[in-house]
Amino acid sequence: MEDALIVHRLHFAFTITYHYLFPQLTMGLAPLIVILKTLAIWKKDERYNKAARFWMKIFGVNFLFGVITGIPMEFQFGTNWAKFSQYAGGVIATTLAMEGVFAFFLESAFLGLFWRGGGGGGGKKGTGFRRSWSSSVHGYRHISSSSQMRGCSIRSDT
Predict the structure, then answer these.
(1) Which of 59, 90, 94, 124 is the most buried (most CB within 10 A)?
(2) Distance (Å, rounded) from C-alpha 138 to C-alpha 107?
(3) Domain around 85
(4) 44 phi/psi in degrees, rounded to 5
């Protein structure tokens, strides 16, 4: 029993490590792409547009891996830390659910608009700004969930 628990917790450590790397890079790339697209429009310089398209590809891959690691991570909270989930589930379930809504629905919708608008070059009518905003809201949910988890302490012998 103890070996299986260690293996599952190591798997969770792997998942959480990658889940915290990819979304943070995505949240940092969103404003960079907006800046590059803005410069491309204002200066009418195709180099900024090419740079924005390049970083959009990196952005899409990072978003994909953030979602791939985020889905099992939420289930692992319940399976690996059942006592924690019982104790703090009423508090952190709300922020995790909101994060899921923002990450999977709102951000995905804006990402689709961002990619498809402008011939794959970064969106029209402010979709880049909306995409950057949704990344910021997602980051806020990450911080909210993390801070609430750090505030809870559970004895292992209970």
Answers:
(1) 59
(2) 8
(3) 2-150
(4) 55, 45
